[in-house]
Amino acid sequence: MSRATAAALLPETPRPNTAAPRTERRLTSVTAPAPRRRPKLAYALVAVAGAAAIAAAQIGLSLAITNDSFVLADLTSQQRELDLQTSALQDDLAGISSPQLLATKASQLGLVVAGPASYLRLSDSAVLGSDEGASWGSTVNPEGAGAVNNALLDEDAQEAVAAEENAETSTTKDPDLPPAITDGLPSPTTR
Predict the structure, then answer these.
(1) Residues 6 or more apart in contact with residue 118 via CB below 8 angstroms
(2) pLDDT digits (tens, 9 = 90+) for 103-150
(3) Which of 37, 92, 144, 177 has its CA 20 to 30 Å from the CA of residue 109?
């Protein structure tokens, strides 16, 4: 069954009147406009104080970030200096522990190259191998014609490197100083 036939078969019930009674509006003339309320001073002060607080916070954060960048630049320069010192110390250590220097120092102390090794057996205190000391002179001459030069030990080479470094530092200009005046006052080039 469709809705239309079902509605036709159902008895009709009266519907309650839900409309409100109409009242007539009366028109009246307006004599003066309603007075405007003055804005409250407290709201304006709160808005200005909020804007000032936001500006102060932004300036504070900007200063903190800038300070951190200066601290980072300072630490970076310190790290660079420490890296250079580490490199110089490693070069010194390599020169001190080089075989050329060790052979030279051993020769100055009177040490010689021994012959074959000798061993002491603890069970019966017997000496195995050659039991005599190295009484002959060393055949290794660390300062002789067959010696291999080490640039880290050569004082002339170190002095040349130091002079070169001094020359490089003297030719670099300090960016805080004004430019040198050689041909009068500097002027712009025009075309």
Answers:
(1) 127, 128, 129, 130, 131
(2) 778 877 877 766 677 888 899 988 888 766 666 666 666 666 666 677
(3) 92
